[in-house]
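Progress report, Aim 2. The chain analyzed during this reporting quarter is listed below.
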Amino acid sequence: MAKFCVYAVARGRKTGVFHTWPECQAQVKGYKNPVFKGFMTEEEAKEWLLSGNQKYQKSEKKELPPEQIDWSTYFEEDHLDTNELPAVMPEAYAFVDGSYNDNYNGRKVYGYGGIVHANGEDVYVSGHGCEEAYVVSRQIPGEVFGSLSAIEKAIELGVPHLVVFYDYAGLGHWATSGKRWKAEKPIAKAYVQKYDEFSEKIKVNFYHVKAHTDIAGNEMVDKMAKREVGIL
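Predicted structure tokens for the chain:
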């Protein structure tokens, strides 16, 4: 039997990477439908968590029926383990996504797209970059700058509370205080620093959706990000 060196917990009392079995066990023992996995290296564990591809048990607790949800408070908390859109959308929200091209006119480039729905209108944000410290993380800088640009635009529009719909797990887990992952790479550190600055001006909650599942807003920002890096 393989002896694992680290354990990743995707669903438990606390989520993240734990370096001993007792630490991991404390998060999953007695917790309903925990999701965790052992790895030989910390890098493998983090990649698994960031991938968003963890397989949850079929007995996992499901969302309440729409008629039983208090929508006035539903978006006051983060929803990091969801995959589908809610039955009711919040008053102000954004879809964000990122992309990457390792040879766009001879350069490695990351790009992003975002749609901010506020005050009854849609506002679009997009851009790209090739900063050396960030581009090594491939599409992740695009995801990050998509989120930050959408939040910044919402602040400009005077939005007091924004719900960010995203498909890259790190966006929610790096930002939320209750389940915050440790930011280690330059792009993650930059994201956390800027997000913390923005959070003094606006309340932000995160809502995870699964990529490439025909969610219109998510598909649109995916195409926007790809255009920024010359894929479309």
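The chain has eight helices and eight strands. Confidence is low (pLDDT under 50) at residues 56-61. These observations will guide the mutagenesis work planned for the next reporting period.
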